[in-house]
Design a protein that fits this description.
Elements lengths: L7 E8 L2 E14 L2 E6 L4 E7 L10 H4 L4 E7 L5 E6 L4 E7 L5 E16 L4 E14 L5 E4 L1 H8 L10 H17 L34
């Protein structure tokens, strides 16, 4: 399954069969290397919250796993982001930009490989975010990110969606070696990307954005 450049698709994180978050994204390219997506500032999004409206990071994980959940809608108020999902890889790489749209850093999101779906009017890719991440700076130095959250959640194996800590860390270390060597995609590729002017930001999430996960 390949997606046509320019098409708006749903990039979704899935937790135990529930939608954790949804981010509509434009397809930049989709080829033998993988899927490249663009998320614009102000894009309508949704994310899972407790009945009290709190996101997962706002409460201890012990409390989160005993909560009831709903999907809250909002807007992507972070910087514009380019996301690369390599074929069959247990990670994606994101390019963050500053307020002027200039490349700021890479962000390695460790995740179970995405599964694509296409319902015709709406399509997307569902993955499982494994929470541990790596920030890679322009000079190719790096640091782990969200390691505290990762360790906290591993203490609840009956509820956490990550089942193999060693595999997640090994994937991170593998990508770190790529970054240290300046190999693709840490070789400057797409660091100067600008989206086509005709790519508008949708007013709201399209019908079907919340269809049952395939991951």
């Amino acid at each position: 399954m390949r997606f046509t450049p320019g098409r708006l698709i749903m990039h979704r994180n899935v937790r135990h069969g529930r939608i954790g978050w949804v981010r509509p994204a434009r397809v930049v390219s989709d080829d033998e290397r993988g899927l490249l997506l663009w998320v614009a500032r102000g894009t309508p999004v949704a994310h899972e919250v407790t009945a009290a409206g709190l996101g997962m990071r706002a409460v201890p994980f012990a409390e989160w796993i005993t909560s009831s959940y709903r999907l809250a809608r909002g807007r992507w108020n972070g910087p514009p982001v380019l996301k690369f999902l390599p074929v069959d890889a247990a990670h994606s790489v994101w390019w963050f930009a500053d307020e002027r749209g200039r490349f700021q850093n890479w962000y390695v999101n460790l995740e179970e490989p995405g599964v694509r779906w296409d319902d015709g009017p709406v399509a997307g890719v569902d993955m499982v975010d494994q929470d541990l991440d790596v920030v890679v700076r322009p000079d190719l130095t790096w640091e782990w990110k969200d390691e505290g959250e990762f360790v906290e959640r591993l203490a609840f194996p009956g509820h956490y969606w990550v089942t193999d800590e060693k595999a997640v860390r090994a994937e991170g270390e593998r990508v770190i070696r790529l970054a240290e060597s300046g190999a693709f995609p840490f070789d400057g590729t797409w660091c100067d990307f600008t989206p086509p002017a005709e790519w508008d930001v949708p007013d709201e999430l399209p019908p079907g954005w919340d269809r049952p996960p395939v991951r």
